[in-house]
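Handout, section B. The chain below has 372 residues.
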Amino acid sequence: MQKNIPPYRHWVFPSIAIVMGLCVGLLAGELFFRFKDDSKHFSPKQGMWHDHDLMHCYPTNPFGNLPIDLHREPDRQAFQRRFPEANIPELQEHTPYCVAYYTADDSPRRRTVVDHPTDKIAIIGDSFAFGEGVADDAQTYGAQLARMRHATVQLFAWPGADIGRVRRQFDVVLQAQPAAHFTKIIYLFVLNDPVISSDLRIRQYYLNLNDLIGIRLGELNPTQDLHGFSKYLWQAGRCSKLAAAIARRLVIRRVTQDTIGWYQAIFDERQNPGIIETFEIVREMKMLSESHGMHFYLAIYPLMIDLKHYPFREAHETVKRLGSMRGVDVIDLLPAFERNADKRLTVHPLDSHPNGAADKIAAEATAQSLPQ
């Protein structure tokens, strides 16, 4: 006679198996991340000035493009001589892979000279124009443009410049013009350059965790910046490497989406009237350039994010429209980058500044757009 099997037995053993499988999976994930421990990959990039030297140091060197390794004694000694105030032991522990730039006016990064130049070009802008993260001066945008155009190119750009600082760079160009005799001036425009409203500036503080140019999780304030599940997961990350890894990725994903919306708002005239002020400054630079014998160009350098499905095409169209309305020649570099979207174009996984390959694409597209 067959026994009646209690109904609960039909689901209790499969449920136990599922729970055990989940526990094994979580344990395996925890062991993996304890072994891998990718937290060091999110240590913030360090920067320091000394005299005419600037350095940036990173937690890892996955692409092999950072020439200074503070694990090596000769590199530590040379680095300490250039940056005597640097805390070498701290850098060696957290961000040991570095690039240093010599930035004096007569440096190769600042000025590329060719014999019998057919053009003399001044470049203004921010860290994209400067070549932040590009170790080889010869691979920067300005140096590659100089070779392609057979031109003398002088760089006036500085990292961190917005439209106000770019306007001051432009004044320096005007002061140099009587002796330099520039024929062209190129403003290498990046989407975070414009004047922004106070509301957008308040949002910018939180979005600095990932402004689509650099990831800075070290600036995260979990109490203020996290809510709901992410907050509890971040707290669990104090004890669990797996929880910490998941929390970091959730935070980066959320902030990335918020940052995309923030950039799009910058180019919405209703949300950010400062975009009109920005292009009035551009118009003024264009008119002053012409009165000093220079042709003014604005070249839009795209952000290095999802170039196959670029989220800022409308912003580029706004820049072209506002520039054209003021008689400015605008060069959009985005199409050239979309054709090369499969290439690695950033200096580091945590730093989306364009690398030398990206600067070559930008220089080629600019050179082809300039009149002969």
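Note. Residues 198-266 form one domain. Compare this with the example in section A.
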